[in-house]
Design a protein that fits this description.
Rossmann fold, alpha/beta, 12 strands, five-stranded parallel sheet, 2 domains, Thrombin, subunit H, 236 residues
Length: 236
């Protein structure tokens, strides 16, 4: 049984805040919902050592975008606090670069379905079990087939980045396995084939694969899809 974690969910939208908190609490974690920057800073100052992860909306009413992350990082003990940003609150690729420089661990879609919340946060809750990637990821459940030797399996994806994807499966392959994967992007006219490597596995969730060889045209289609959907649900 994995250890319980304490996670602050900071978002001024009750629907998002409550749904993430409920998913975390349902898995045995201690979810701490906050609705304002003032409340967030107060909780971090009170007991930052007990916080394992901060999931943050950088467009809360009293925040200033990336500046809220700078404020958090300046707090005593917060320099190494794992921090995940709600992707819909990102305004531009420049903000992604700034957040990366501030050590943001990754991004999560605030509109993820309830059953995808824990898989999306697991790499940040249990980093020792994962090869974490901080590049933007799009929550995406599409069919994928993959082959290891003469064995072919089928599953659904959890999310997609420009360099790889996560797969939901109760029978993940060993880390380092070389596989050939095939999937079709939503609206795509052809299947994309990749030569990939299993970069992490977790029997509670699935596995992640890192693309090692992709046709340039297919890679361009993946890049365009991630960029388009990562910024498609920005918070006003």
């Amino acid at each position: 049984m994995p250890a319980a974690k304490t996670v602050i969910v900071a978002d001024d939208t009750a629907f998002v805040r409550d749904r993430f908190s409920q998913a975390l609490a349902g898995a045995g974690h201690n979810a701490v919902p906050v609705a304002t920057v003032q409340e967030l800073v107060a909780k971090l100052r009170a007991d930052i050592a007990s916080v394992d992860l901060l999931v943050l909306d950088i467009r809360m009413a009293d925040s200033g975008g990336v500046e809220i992350v700078r404020t958090v990082r300046k707090l005593e003990g917060a320099r190494r606090l794992p921090l995940v940003i709600f992707s819909g609150t990102i305004g531009s690729a420049e903000e992604v670069r700034e957040l990366s420089a501030l050590g943001v661990a990754g991004y999560v879609n605030e509109y993820s379905s309830a059953h995808n919340i824990l898989p999306a946060l697991a790499p940040h809750l249990f980093p020792d079990n994962f090869n974490r990637r901080s590049s933007p990821r799009v929550t995406l459940g599409i069919p994928i087939s993959y082959r290891l030797g003469n064995t072919i399996a089928a599953a659904l994806t959890l999310n997609l980045s420009k360099g790889g994807l996560s797969i939901r499966t109760m029978s993940p392959l060993p880390e380092g396995s070389k596989i050939k994967a095939r999937f079709r992007l939503p609206g795509g006219k052809k299947e994309i084939e990749t030569e990939s490597r299993v970069s992490w596995t977790d029997r509670r969730i699935g596995m992640g694969i890192q693309f090692e060889k992709v046709d340039p045209a297919d890679q361009a289609a993946i890049d365009e899809f991630v960029d388009r959907h990562f910024f498609s649900n920005r918070k006003a």
